[in-house]
Specification:
Layout: H1 9-15, E1 21-22, E2 33-42, E3 59-68, E4 74-80, H2 91-99, E5 103-108, H3 129-145, E6 155-165, H4 167-177, E7 188-192, E8 214-219, H5 227-236, E9 241-246, H6 263-277, H7 283-291, E10 298-303
Parallel strand pairs: 4-5, 4-6, 6-7, 7-8, 8-9
Antiparallel strand pairs: 1-2, 2-3, 3-5, 9-10
Length: about 300
């Protein structure tokens, strides 16, 4: 994936967790930003035993943070990785958001991240992941309120986005549109090749009621999650909602650090969406339509 060639992906990845300054100038004048890891521990919720891990009395969430240079405040985006995912796999996409002026918080979920052995047998823990997102959001906002932290005064609490890929898309739907765990602090949502299903009990429902803007992006040749599931979610959603189709893409590579023809498109259109919905830039709506429309690669529909 493209990441302002002057930086170099290997160097950027090596700096994660060290708080080192990354970013480089370009024609779009991206902001420099810092990135580091914080460990947040929720003592109120346990982690069940996984396929290879014992039960724990709490939930430990190692969270990668990105902070743009400058005084701020900046809008915040909480990003959820998918099955066998990890924040380290998204340094280019998340870096593009930070360089556009967004604070990003990306937790590694305790049982489904790529560093956990046989994580593919722990999918049921997704029901706990909306709670993880809510907890991380609370911790990050607390850090922003405290003096002397790296996030002091850096976050615009009125403009917070939720985003996720695959199983993280299901997590994102949960924390924004699901009866079980909808969090009113989120003001925009983005689901990338995600799963659409309620996470609560038998009476639980996903309600795509238009209370916040929603962008759904999905490959029409996704080998893991059928395109029809994304189409169904879009068709049932109240405005404002956007639907981006990547033509001929895979499931995750277009969003992770793998180089694909879709990378620059994904970075541009996601930044456009955040600029439109979290910053209120009217010109960003037209930019979203333009940047998501690329012959043979991507197209966009919307109801505004």
């Amino acid at each position: 994936m493209r990441f302002w060639a002057a930086i170099g992906l290997a160097a950027a990845a090596a700096l994660v967790g060290l708080g080192a300054l990354v970013g480089a100038p370009s024609a779009a004048a991206p902001r420099p930003f810092t990135t580091w890891n914080e460990t947040f521990v929720d003592p109120a919720r346990p982690t069940p035993a996984g396929a290879t891990t014992p039960e724990a009395p709490n939930r430990t969430l190692v969270t990668t943070l990105y902070r743009p240079a400058g005084k701020g405040p900046f809008p915040l985006i909480v990003f959820s990785h998918g099955y066998d995912g990890h924040p380290d796999k998204f340094t280019e996409l998340l870096g593009s958001w930070a360089a556009a002026g967004y604070v990003v918080a990306a937790p590694a979920f305790p049982l489904t991240n790529a560093s956990v052995a046989r994580e593919n047998q722990n999918a049921g823990d997704v029901a706990s992941q909306p709670g993880d997102v809510q907890f991380v959001l609370s911790q990050v906002l607390q850090e922003a309120r405290r003096k002397g932290t790296r996030l002091s005064g850096a976050i615009d609490r009125r403009h917070i986005g939720a985003a996720g890929l695959s199983l993280g898309g299901l997590t994102t739907y949960g924390v924004t549109f699901d009866d079980c765990c909808r969090d009113p602090r989120f003001t925009a949502a983005m689901v990338l090749d995600g799963i659409s299903a309620p996470l609560g009990g038998p009476d639980d429902q996903l309600r795509f009621d238009g209370h916040i803007p929603l962008l759904i992006a999905h490959s029409d040749t996704d080998p893991a999650i059928p395109f029809s599931t994304a189409r169904s979610a879009y068709d049932s959603a109240a405005a404002p909602v956007w639907f981006v189709t990547f033509h001929g893409a895979s499931h995750a590579t277009q969003w992770e650090n793998d180089p694909t023809p879709y990378d620059a498109i994904g970075e541009r259109l996601t930044v456009d969406f955040w600029n439109a919905t979290l910053r209120g830039r009217k010109a960003a709506y037209a930019a979203l339509d333009r940047d998501a429309t690329v012959a043979n690669l991507s197209s966009i529909e919307s109801r505004r």
